[in-house]
Design brief:
Blueprint (H helix, E strand, L loop, with lengths): L26 E7 L18 H8 L2 E7 L5 H10 L3 H4 L28 H7 L3 E7 L17 E5 L16 E4 L2 E5 L15 H19 L3 E6 L21 H22 L6 E7 L26 H4 E7 L8 E3 L3 E2 L3 H8 L16 H6 L6 E6 L2 E7 L2 E4 L1 E2 L4 H5 L19 E2 L5 E4 L15 H19 L10 E2 L11 H4 L11 E2 L5
Parallel strand pairs: 1-7, 1-8, 2-10, 2-11, 3-4, 3-7
Antiparallel strand pairs: 2-9, 4-5, 5-6, 8-9, 12-13, 13-14, 14-17, 15-16, 18-19
Helix pairs in contact: 1-6, 5-6
């Protein structure tokens, strides 16, 4: 069981602006879900309608139907969010094999490079107080600690909540409060694998509410990055929510997160910071179809997490800011998590860095005035640009789901969906004649437009120019996801000495990470 001091009420939210008494400097909260699918919310069509608070948040704000992550996997997506740059630029990719999804398990050597600028660093310099709650996932070694990259506070973990482990072959994942660890998953912070019961969402939510209260009282601007992971396997929910959803355990987790959203929005109103608070709700990638009935729904879109089809990268996204974002808006703006970098800095009146390419665009005019901005969306998998969307057209230059060997083992990123020559189990190069889809008429990417048609040639002429310009101006960063070493795992996290909880580490033995897909 968790210590009693962690048995706290549940809350959840993405963005907070500052009290009107504090002037016009806005506060921000980004609420980033983990593996939540586009079709998981009632407002996006989930038939059980079990997300009343998020549905109401959308009714009071803006629903962004065409919003994307920058990668179909957790770590690169999160690195792109915080840097405003594609993973191929910020280093969150691998060159060990072609078009492979890499991330940051605890044996990874790399992490967020010091050369990268995270927007919390710029907010911090401008007087903001920043807190991350939940999963960091940009490297667990001391030099990658979030408090060294723009955050003032942290309550959460550096890696996914996999486990339990024996602390001999692999250590359990540490949980941090500030600079130091305060325990480990499955030891001090329980997740019951058989039942799915855990109080983690309650703990993370109370951390958010307390932070909002403190900052409202201080009348200083703040950024809250609420990066919780209840919908990532192994999925969990607290006892009051277990067994309450028509969708099983995954639905229980979603219902608890929805309840938390309502509580945090209420906290903003209670402390009179709602009118100066931008709240953005989204997810790091699509629902994990490999998780079967314990994973999310990607609605009408093809495939899911790990793929560059729509189900892998189109995210359920809501923006909320009373008296600034008009209620009941639906935006078809092509958006990306990377856009948070220039958008938040623009709203905070902070100049963008000029010494590097920023892939995100400023969406403040979209949020505040409903303006639509022409821009492309690039779909990367590892070191390869797999697809591009421009307007309503999406061109696949490469297709791949996952290999036949994995498929025979029951690992399927496109469960129950087989589109000939599209959901390929080998890496298929279409560069000489990309597969083209109209994602308005054909949301499921099932019916390629004929290459002989006028429509194909007209669309590809525009897309080809965008791709040429992109590749001409692309300078890949140093890959951070190439090397692994069991000696760098969470044997001795910062602060373990104070608790007497350090573990003996094996000798360093670096090797090239193997990424199967």
């Amino acid at each position: 069981m968790l210590p009693k001091k962690w048995h706290l009420p549940v809350l959840l939210i993405l963005g907070t602006f500052q009290s009107s008494a504090c002037g016009s400097t806005p506060n921000f909260i980004i609420m980033l879900m983990d593996d939540m699918g586009w079709g998981d919310l009632g407002v996006f069509g989930e038939p059980s309608k079990e997300t009343p608070n998020l549905d109401n948040m959308a009714a009071e704000g803006m629903l962004l139907t065409d919003f994307y992550s920058a990668n179909p996997l957790c770590s690169p997506s999160r690195a792109a969010l915080l840097t405003g740059r594609l993973p191929i630029r910020n280093g969150f990719y691998t060159t060990n094999a072609h078009a492979r999804n890499g991330y940051t398990p605890q044996e990874i050597v790399g992490g967020i490079a010091d050369e990268e600028i995270l927007f919390p660093e710029l907010l911090q310099k401008a007087g903001y107080r920043n807190k991350i709650i939940g999963k960091w996932h940009l490297g667990h070694r001391p030099q990658f600690h979030p408090l060294k990259h723009g955050f003032d506070e942290w309550f959460g973990a550096p890696n996914c909540h996999f486990g339990p482990y024996d602390n001999k072959q692999r250590p359990n994942i540490p949980v941090y409060n500030g600079m130091d660890m305060v325990g480990r998953y499955y030891e001090d912070f329980q997740i019951h694998r058989e039942t799915g019961e855990s109080n983690l969402t309650q703990i993370f939510t109370q951390q958010a509410v307390d932070f909002i209260e403190r900052q409202a009282q201080s009348q200083k601007p703040f950024f809250l990055y609420w990066a919780i992971d209840a919908t990532h396997g192994p999925v969990y929910a607290s006892k009051p929510f277990l067994g309450t959803s028509r969708r099983g355990l995954y639905g229980d987790a979603v219902k608890e997160l929805d309840s938390a959203v309502g509580q945090i929005l209420d906290a903003l109103k209670t402390h009179k910071v709602d009118d100066n608070t931008l709240v953005v709700f989204s997810s790091d990638n699509g629902g994990a179809m490999v998780s079967k009935d314990k994973g999310g729904s990607n609605g009408p879109f093809l495939c899911g997490k790990q793929t560059t089809f729509e189900g892998g990268m189109r995210e359920p996204t809501i923006a909320w800011w009373p008296k600034h974002i008009k209620p009941r808006q639906v935006s078809y703006q092509l958006g990306s998590l990377m856009d948070m970098f220039p958008t938040l800095l623009s709203l905070a009146d902070i100049t963008l860095p000029r010494d590097r390419a920023i892939d995100g665009i400023d969406l403040s005019d979209t949020l505040l005035n409903g303006k639509n901005i022409d821009r492309p969306i690039f779909y990367y998998r590892g070191n390869e640009m797999m697809a591009v969307r421009l307007g309503m057209y999406k061109a696949h230059y490469w297709t791949w789901t996952n290999g036949l060997q994995e498929l025979r083992q029951g690992i399927d990123f496109c469960r129950g969906e087989n589109v000939i020559n599209v959901t390929t189990h080998d890496q298929r190069n279409h560069t000489s004649q990309p597969l083209l889809f109209h994602v308005g008429r054909d949301l499921g990417e099932r019916y390629p437009i004929s290459p002989d048609s006028i429509e194909y040639h007209s669309a590809m002429k525009k897309i080809s120019k965008v791709v040429r310009d992109h590749k001409t101006n692309l300078t890949p960063g140093q890959p951070q996801l190439n090397w692994c070493d069991t000696g760098v795992m969470n044997w001795k996290p910062i602060g373990c000495e104070k608790l007497g909880r350090c573990l003996p580490a094996p000798s360093s033995n670096p090797y090239k990470c193997v990424w199967m897909h």
